[in-house]
Amino acid sequence: MVALGSALLCGCFVDNAALYATGPDPSSSSTSGESDTSTTATTTATTTAETSTSMTTDTTSGTATSSGDSTTSDCPPDQQNLWFLDADMDGHGDPDSGELLCGQPAGYVTIGDDCDDNEQYAYPGNRELCDGIDNDCNTLVDEWSELNETCDGCTLASAGNRFYAFCETALTWTAAQVACQDRGGDLLVLASESEETQLSGYTEGNPAGWWIGLSDLALEGEFVWVDGNPPGHTRWALAEPTATESENCVDLINGGIVDGWSDRSCELERAFICEIAAP
User: Fold this and answer.
1) How far is CA 216 from CA 5, 8, 151, 224, in A?
2) Residues 130 and 152: beta-carbon distance below 8 Å
3) Confidence class of residue 257 from pLDDT cuts 50, 70 and 90?
4) Residues whose CB falls within 8 Å of the CB of residue 73, separated by 6 or more in sequence, listed in order
5) Is residue 22 over pLDDT 80?
6) Does domain 150-277 bear CATH number 3.40.50.740?
7) Pairing of strands 210-215, 249-253
8) To bridge 154 with a disulfide, which of 67, 102, 132, 167 should be the other Cys (CB 3.0-4.6 Å)?
9) Domain residue ranges in the chain
10) Contacts 24+ apart (CB under 8 A), 11-15
11) CB contact set of 14 (below 8 Å; sequence gap of 6+)
């Protein structure tokens, strides 16, 4: 925007009587000349007043702006602020929309960290809900929060830098793994006895067991976690694993007659446990 200086309007008038100094008797036209002059002066004064009203000068930047428009983009750098477009009006702007301006434009904010500026319920610091949206902008969708303890048939939990989903919908081992990957994680990897103890309150009371991320699908008899590591901690149930070639996937039963891990046919349908690392 090009800076405008103060507008200077001039009303210049010609004395009609002087035109008749060497001509006809000026008294014969004086009434008409005076009327024209008065009309012209009134019109010019009105135009000057209207122009003064419609244009104001920004005393800080020296930039003239139209009445009601507080935004200016042409001013000294030390008077400029970085503003971000906030299309969804959640107080967090699109980080790619930053502009240096001398006033806050309508619909702009000073915070430019929104992960989705078209979604009002997605911004950093928000708490996750069960709505299919990454509400807190951490790249995960529908993970545990104080407002989201159950979602899509799963009980959600958090411990340390891990999120967990205990899903009671019975699926085959492979389908369960896909469901966990859709959540941003994978089937549960039990890294230690203490982790299994920590989760025991969620795994109790299910005599059919839960699929976990352990199998010997790659090599018979060589059980590895879905992350490729061999188990450092094991809790096999009595007489398990059976070393049966048709039983390659591991479930966990906490309590009851069968207590511990067992290898099963991967085609059986079980509840399952997902583990998602916090970003």
Assistant:
1) 81, 89, 31, 6
2) yes
3) confident
4) 1, 99, 100, 101, 102
5) no
6) no
7) antiparallel
8) 167
9) 16-57, 71-124, 150-277
10) 11/40, 11/41, 11/44, 11/45, 11/48, 13/37, 13/40, 13/41
11) none
